[in-house]
Design goal:
The structure holds two protein chains of two kinds.
Chain A (H helix, E strand, L loop, with lengths): L4 E4 L2 H18 L3 H22 L2 E9 L4 E9 L7 H4 L13 H8 L2 E7 L3 E9 L2
Antiparallel strand pairs in A: 1-2, 2-3, 3-5, 4-5
Chain B lengths: L6 E4 L2 E5 L6 H18 L3 E5 L8 H17 L2 E5 L3 H10 L7 E3 L2 H12 L2
Parallel strand pairs in B: 2-3, 3-4, 4-5
Antiparallel strand pairs in B: 1-2
Helix pairs in contact in B: 1-2
The chains are: A alpha+beta, B alpha/beta.
Chain lengths: 132, 120
């Protein structure tokens, strides 16, 4: 039984989260390009937790509906939350001096993307990639 | 678990092949090691090969872009080789273009390009 969650506390946990993601993506039968997309998306989400929230958790699960199978990445933290969601979804916006690829990049890499953030509760991001 | 990336000297060039997935610390250590090696050897050019790498995230891309600019400041040109199709696709989708970077399909072509850039 594979553990499908990785607690993100330090930089090594970012590596663990993306390795788990790549394994699940491979098992599901995603091709190399989608594996790279999924791995990269997980890396960005895990790094956001590490940089902005201090700690949190990445959960990776297989999902299925009537028509298709896919992978869902859930990023959860109890950090300070994001005060301006619209701004954070703009390309080039970054508060950490990074490349600003962050969340808009993750949205482009994945098929579905949703974000909820509350300054008192933290941030929950869910994104899905469907198997084609 | 902090591993160092070997940097090889070949005439007046340095040769680096990234063989495993980069974590943050290894990437930052590599940045420092490469600059020291350029200084030590008076290398004029560097080829960094990514053939074995199957993904690059925004952090690694930033460290890479930075080390290329830093090398340029020191007087060394850097050529990136062996970027896999999946890596090229995800980098552009992420919004990372690394536009001013000299690239080549593989190590061999990278070395040729470097020699031309250096005017030999």
């Amino acid at each position: 039984m594979m553990d499908s969650s990785v607690k993100i506390i330090n930089e090594w946990d970012i590596v663990a989260a993306r390795q788990l993601g790549r394994n699940v993506a491979k098992e599901l039968g995603f091709g190399t390009v989608d594996q790279a997309r999924i791995t990269t998306a997980i890396s960005e989400l895990a790094r956001n937790i590490y940089l902005y929230a201090g700690q949190g958790e990445i959960t990776i699960e297989k999902i299925e509906n009537e028509a298709k199978k896919g992978i869902i990445i859930i990023s959860r933290d109890a950090g300070p939350g994001i005060s301006d969601l619209r701004k954070v979804m703009e390309d080039g916006f970054s508060t950490s001096g990074g490349l600003g690829a962050g969340l808009p990049g993750v949205k482009r890499l994945m098929d579905e993307f949703s974000i909820e953030s509350d300054p008192r509760k933290g941030t929950l991001i869910q994104s899905v990639k469907w198997l084609r | 678990m902090n591993m160092r990336i070997p940097i090889l000297k070949l005439h007046d060039c340095l040769l680096v092949s990234i063989q495993w997935e980069l974590d943050d610390q290894t990437a930052l250590q590599f940045q420092e090691d490469l600059l020291h090696k350029i200084h030590e050897t008076s290398a004029r050019g560097v080829v960094i090969d990514f053939t074995s790498i199957d993904f690059i995230d925004s952090f690694i891309a930033k460290v890479l872009g930075d080390v290329i600019s830093m090398s340029r400041l020191m007087g060394a040109k850097v050529v990136i080789t062996g970027i896999q199709p999946a890596v090229a696709i995800t980098l552009i989708e992420l919004g990372i273009h690394l536009e001013e970077v000299i690239t080549a399909l593989d190590l061999e072509k990278g070395l040729e390009k470097l020699q031309r850039e250096l005017g030999d």
